[in-house]
Amino acid sequence: MNRFISVGKILNFHGVQGEAKIGFSKNQQNFFLSLDKVFVKLDGEYKPLIISRSRINKTFAIVKFEGIDSINELLPFKGAILFVEEETIRENLDEDEFLIDELVGLDVVDNAGKKLGFIIGVSNNGATDLLSVKTMSKKVSFVPFVKAIVTDVDLKSKKVTINNLEGLLE
Fold first, then answer.
1. pTM
2. Are both 115 and 39 inside the same structural domain?
């Protein structure tokens, strides 16, 4: 069974020809423009929408879907979350990129292997991704997801090794 991952949301219509204004994650313009198909979940099933053309306009995308040629045909999709198959995302990941759900729950250890906590989420501050780490003392700290600090991600061992700089956690 295919897994689907959200990549955007139909925010509104754009013009009268059935084009959609799409919101998507920061810094994902090239990935979004590379897509030729997305899915919407209707009545519990993922239905494909074929992209005939797309372009970036400021912080959102303008997308034309095949078979949707007017505002009235697009309106039922307003607010819909857009998905792609997980494999589509994996094909576009660089060697040091991961899906958020792969990281959440992993143990965080120092270079000596001492457990410091575990990852409860991932966010972005505009400059870099941040790992939200719940420490052993139950506090949440943000760890910049950069090579100088995060030295290893081992999905098989379910752990992330960090340089635990003074003051980084807690």
1. 0.69
2. no
